[in-house]
Amino acid sequence: MLTIIELLPILQVEGILNNSLYCLFRRGLVYVFHSKTLKLMSALCSFPLVRPCIRPRYCQSRRQHISDQVDHIFGYWSAKYILIGLHSQHTQSRAEQGKIETLASDEDLVRESDYIFSIVPPRDALATAQRIVKVLKENTGIRTTPLYYLDLNAVSPCSAREIANLFQDPSLVIPIDGGIIGGAPQLKTDTTATSTMSRHTDSASDWYRPSIPQSGPHKLIDSPKSGQHLAELLKVRHISDEIGQASGLKMCFAATTKGFMALVIQSFTTASQLGVLDELKKEMGQLTPAALQNAERGIPGVPPKAYRWVREMEEIAATFSEGGFDKDVFTGISKVYKTMADDTVLGLEKTGHRNRGTTADDVALAMGEGLQAVKKKSE
User: Is position 219 within any domain?
Assistant: First the structure.
């Protein structure tokens, strides 16, 4: 019987990496190669671990509860987190503080993995897959069984096909197209520290989980190495035998959420500069209260992600181009996020370390300041 490895010190570390994120399963061990934030990681991990990630103060008091639930959710799976490709001293020190083990190379990754889940900034999706291909080409015989490579990046169907086409030999790698739709897992009922400790979470059904559609000729659920268990745990569903369909679905969904965020950021910023932001919110509260609620709840979370969303909007533009539309709309939206990331103080924001833009009003203010600064430089 495998032992559940203690993860609580790791859950107290947020946003510690800037390289690739992978999740892979090998001989009953769960490895996560982590990038950006543990909240992102939560989309692929045991769901009861998400709450202490969001509210670290609950970690110590929930130690036994979490350990029990990891055991229940994963069954015979053990959990372990490993990082690869640490760059800055800050990243290295935070990894050491979190007691996170490191891998030396991509070769170790490919050699030891049964599954790789690639979730990186969209601009890095192709390069990440190419790293795996490079290892396979330079290390003949490194694998004796096929490696499942699930590309869950926010890319267009065309990009998804380009990535899948890198893997031509199914005896080495089985590519699967996919995407993550929805937010991080969370309990279906609101909790406090007291109720969280006392409530027994019996199964993953007690948790909201994002949807992970997948497409392509191969199904994760058919993998002989506990594929059904893994697919059920992560809420993976097969929607088509054609590579690119799952990515297309992800892009169409993201257009309605991240596209909306860009529009309300422009609207709030302009209203702020005109001095009518309060009046705008008053009108929205009366006529479109749900839109106002979504804006005020969602806008503050955008700044740390803006640099990632630049390329994602471009990928949406490419997706809509396949549908016959012009690319101009989402190419323009990508520029909103590029402005936020490159021309304002909001581009310095990191998940878990926030200074500006913690409210929708301050995001609008900071965006206005950045735009005015750019205008003055051009004059």
Answer: yes
